[in-house]
Amino acid sequence: MDILTRRRFLLASGVAGAGALAAGASAYGLADLFDTAGDRDPQARTLVLVTLYGGNDGLNTVVPYSDPAYQDARPELAYSADEVRRLDDQIGLNPALTGLHRLYGDGRLAIVRGVGYPTPDRSHFRSMDIWQTARPDRPEQTGWLGRWLDGVGGDPRLAVSFEPTLPPLLAGAHSAGAAVPVTERKARRPVGDQTLARLAVPEPGEPAGQARAAACFADLRAVDTMITEVRDAAAAEEADEGGDDQPAATATGGARGSLAAQLDLVAQCVEAGVSSRVFSASLGGFDTHADEKQLQAVLLGQVDKALTGFVDRMAGTEPGRKVVVAVYSEFGRRVRANASDGTDHGTASDVFLLGAGVNGGLHGEPPDLTRLDDGDLRFTTDFRDVYASLLERVLDTDPEQVLAGWRGRLSGVLT
């Protein structure tokens, strides 16, 4: 099997890596998810995990604009007090985050500061592996939400990815989540395919006009099928080759497709009451080594529009008000800017939690920009505290069973 054919097979199968292969991950469609509508406990909460691949610059996302050390370390990249969306007299959001600024004011955005892990690794791949497996101390073959899935029965539809491939975080030891193509934007439920096929078959003894109508309908279905196949093939080729209209994801990962499109699918599923308890979405392109300010603003603008539209939509229904969104990246960036008007791989950063089920505001101790480890921020909140709280408060699961006995928790962030 050649590399291209193998890659397409893996994409179609929803398989990412040996762990998911062993678990037998397979392709699913929206119809498979909608088949579970009504099966879930109406009181159950939903977790939506959004991964920003590439290492988003936390200091230019949640900006310590009043800190002289911030301004001194990156004079060309730093935002001034007049530019940021102020949260208080010291901290502001990136100017592109207008919607998140509104959600913060509404109490629906919690910002957990200084999140990281001991002995940080600046490799995209190793650090993302640590975040997705929740094992910074040693290599691990399963994802933290894959282990949760193992513990709740292993039905792939309980943990769904709308990314090109199933992320390792959804691969368990005995099961794996479902990968659903983001191109499948709407569920075609009102009229089944078998019903449409019967409409195209003439009935014995029916009038000639009806028989001709059936034949015309059969021709129309054939043309529609052909157009769909050509369009899907072209879309697959475009996805393989990449497009100029999306920021480069680079080898660090992340979906090329719109984050808003992925979250639209999540919203459809939540509103339909499907059994899924976990959804994974992503956006790539945050590896901003050069000309960072403009590129990051474009990317954060996409994140802002997608997240605020989704959170506002979820606020309109009872199932939606039980959704918690968590947004993270594999690491932040160095405090000091480099010579290319960008920043290099760093360590600690911020995690955003959104929804009706969060206590909005700033949480955790911010890292001290004057007390660095080799130019990097010292983390003040272990990311496993975040995961443990999500497992306990959103997924109703004992975190110690999933996180190798981890006992830490966030304080007062989730309701």
TrEMBL record:
Top-level taxonomic group: Bacteria
Chain intervals for the UniProt region annotation (Disordered): 234-253
Sorted UniProt keywords: Signal
Positions with biased composition (Acidic residues): 235-244
Alphabetical list of PANTHER family matching this protein: BLL7424 PROTEIN, DUF1501 DOMAIN-CONTAINING PROTEIN
Signal peptide start and end residues: 1-27
Name under which the protein is recorded: DUF1501 domain-containing protein
